[in-house]
Write a structure and sequence with these properties.
- The chain is mostly beta strands.
- Helices cover 0% and strands 52% of the residues.
- The protein contains no helices and 11 strands.
- The chain starts with a strand and ends with a strand.
Length: 112
Amino acid sequence: VQLQESGPGLVKPSQTLSLTCTVSGRDITAKDYYWMWIRQPPGKGLEWIGYIADSGSTYYSPSLKSRTSISRDTSKNQFTLQLNAVTPEDTAIYFCVARAYWGQGTQVTVSS
């Protein structure tokens, strides 16, 4: 299974961060897979953001739930993270993850 993040590396404060994870080697509707987003702010540990399950159901971190949406495009075998109303505190490396499989990560900086 391979995962690859894509999206803008710079987002302005108050705007929406949108990242896409393209998956190969496994259908994102495969049973018992949870397709996750995780981030790591500079100098800090990993923070779990949320997931979309094989069924399409979603679950988000309580601390980010009000600003987060994860969706999928099964025709493209992709899933997407949207994080609204970003602030500089959302600056981080963002990873898409499934089981032991990690994307390489993509740096997102929130700055005007």
